[in-house]
Amino acid sequence: MAMARQASAKRSPLALFVLLAGVAAATTLLLSRAFVGQQPAALRIRGGAPLVLQRRAQGNLGGDFWAHPWAEELADNEKGEDIDFEDVVAHFNAKREEEGLDLLEVGSSPLVILEGIVDNSALSGQPGMNKAQRIADGIQASSFLLSELTE
User: Fold this and answer.
1) pTM of whole model > 0.70?
2) What is the DSSP-derived secondary structure letter of residue 59?
3) What is the rounded distance in angstroms from the CA atom of residue 125 to the CA atom of residue 77?
4) Which of the 8 DSSP states describes residue 100?
5) What is the full DSSP assignment across 64-87?
6) What is the pLDDT of residues 55-114, one digit of tens each?
7) How many Cβ atoms sit within 10 Å of the Cβ of residue 58?
């Protein structure tokens, strides 16, 4: 009886190794098909056609969203291309003050996100918009940021 337990204990690591090797082989096969262009059946739609994602040349043209009046006013700012982070913060703080809300806290999450939008506004790919408009569009595209700035 003792010898049977010892043999069983010795086979256990071998069985685990074989199991893990099989899982690794199956994963490698699945991933290699995904990257070589042959999609596995799990990524195909009915009829065998592969799932294809379209790339669009338009870049980030925004999407459907509710245009918030504070952001729309920012978009109409006379500074246009010359607007900077401090101007944007001053705009929203003035609006918040008019509504009886607390001013935005320095270093808060909304201001960190807002600074990223302002800093990257030149990279947004929206043709025909000036910097103030691109920033307003970026703000409105983030429901979290818009709610934090306006509530």
Assistant:
1) no
2) -
3) 20
4) T
5) -----HHHHHHHT-TTGGG--HHH
6) 444 444 555 556 788 989 999 999 999 999 999 999 999 999 999 999 999 989 999 999
7) 9
